[in-house]
Amino acid sequence: MKMTKLEKKFVNGRKHAERNLEVVEQLFTQFDGTGITNVLEIGCGVGTVAQHLSDKHGMHVTATDADPEQVKLAKSHYREHEKLQFSQADAANLPFKDGEFEMVLSLNVFHHISNWGCVLSEVNRVLKSRGYFVFHDLAYSKAATILFRPVAKHYGLYTIGDIIEVSKTHGLSIVHRGEPSGIILANHSIVFQKNEH
């Protein structure tokens, strides 16, 4: 889903990027990322996290966004090179091979995607066995999903329980779950690992 100008102003801001970097670094302490070289970022925005992973951690990062304007902006902020590429892609229909990535990240993206269940299926498909899915996003209370469903057809409306249950059906198990912040609309951080086949 394409974001509004107001949403873009927020997500493309420096504070938002700095917060995402803090989240990534904190979550990286919760699992053994040794040997992770090939990473997919879903919803790269201006590319700050992808560039950080490439430069600081030496990872090969393929950073995607459904919005071509965001991809263009990321390319204008950061120079692409062997370990950093930006491309437009629909997260519910990723143009990558099965088992291509050791880690997939999605930071503050799922609440923009109405068919988020399809995205979880694609995450499972493109992850290697024992690969990690790093999820950080908003989730609604059960009452809020019922209340907002009639008016928010183009947004991802889910509880964190919904995300966890659908992830389990796609072969993803929780290895870390952070404490949520917020009540009606809370931020959740979860690291999943793909089960072995």
What labels describe this entry?
197 residues; alpha/beta; Rossmann fold; 7-stranded mixed beta sheet; 27% strand
Give a verbal description of the structure.
With 197 residues, the protein is of the alpha/beta class. It has one domain (38-194): Rossmann fold, CATH 3.40.50.150. It is built from seven helices and seven strands; from the N terminus they run ααβαβαββαβααββ. It has helices spanning 5-11, 14-28, 48-57, 68-77, 116-126, 142-148, 160-169, and strands at 38-42, 60-65, 84-88, 101-107, 127-140, 172-177, 185-194. Helix 4 links the parallel strand 2 and strand 3 (84-88). The protein is globular, with a radius of gyration of 16 Å. The termini are far apart.
Short description:
The protein has helices at 5-11, 14-28, 48-57, 68-77, 116-126, 142-148, 160-169, and strands at 38-42, 60-65, 84-88, 101-107, 127-140, 172-177, 185-194. It has 197 residues and is of the alpha/beta class. It has one domain (38-194): Vaccinia Virus protein VP39 (Rossmann fold, 3-Layer(aba) Sandwich).
CATH top level assignment: Alpha Beta
Largest sheet: 7 strands, mixed
Helix-strand string: HHEHEHEEHEHHEE
- The coarse overall form would be globular
Structural class assignment = alpha/beta
